[in-house]
């Protein structure tokens, strides 16, 4: 199959990417044990299939995910639209320092990411979380300097509030806003974020478009998760919340069965149907799931399908918060 292309941003901020990206985080941390050789194979298989939009961050590992991605693309840099992030500061031992948007740190973090990735520039550099102690104008002033220096081609921001997005956009055009968005997490539809990016011509990169794997239908019990999987501590995977969410999942499974697609493919097709400026970045550690996810690009959902999914999983119907601590999102 030929993987379609979509454009994030407009004018000088525009970048063309594959219609679906690959989130690399879970290859190194958070979702249980990883397999480096299989992860490298997944990245190569994605590139072979035409999925050229790779997403990582310095804090994944920490630091090890960027190194992994760097090794994977070492001989294929020209094929890749490479995205990474800064701002969730961690030490080598994994302890969290906090959110950091200070200009000096931005410059240091970028240089460190370039070294780990083994590249001379990043195609899309995100502010991973907004630092409430630093005006976003100061952070974005440093990012604009990185663009001028050729170290960064385009800039994005993650989990930011509408007002923050607008302020950043005045300093330097925002190419993409990355926020969680799926049938399971539809906050952006009513908190102003989606309306803001549409108004300003900014691309939207949907992370966790499979609801952290929940919408795949393969997680039926908390015991299906590794002991070190962070989802064991996620409110949506706990107790009554988990059981209520399984009821929502069953509705998705029924619609998927009627269309002869998998629940994952249906969930991704729903995100893709939200607009040409929207690009989901499902993550996986296995080639067979990669192939399944790519298959969603061929699924066309009509108005009846979209209405059925809206009725099955209405906005706000998921039980539990996205994170145990929601204080760092939508700032």
Instruction: Please describe the biggest sheet, giving its number of strands, its sense, and whether it closes into a barrel.
Output: 8 strands, parallel
User: Overall pLDDT, averaged?
Assistant: 96
Strand order of the largest sheet: 3-4-5-8-9-10-11-12
Helical fraction equals: 25-40%
State the assembly state of the protein chains.
single chain
Low-confidence stretches: none
Proportion of residues in extended strands: 15-25%
**Total number of helical segments?**
10
What's the alpha carbon Rg, rounded to whole Å?
19 Å
Please tell me what the overall shape is. globular
Order of helices and strands: EEEHEHEEEHEHEHEHEHHEHH
Number of strands: 12
Distance between the termini: 40 Å
**Which secondary-structure class do the elements indicate?**
alpha/beta
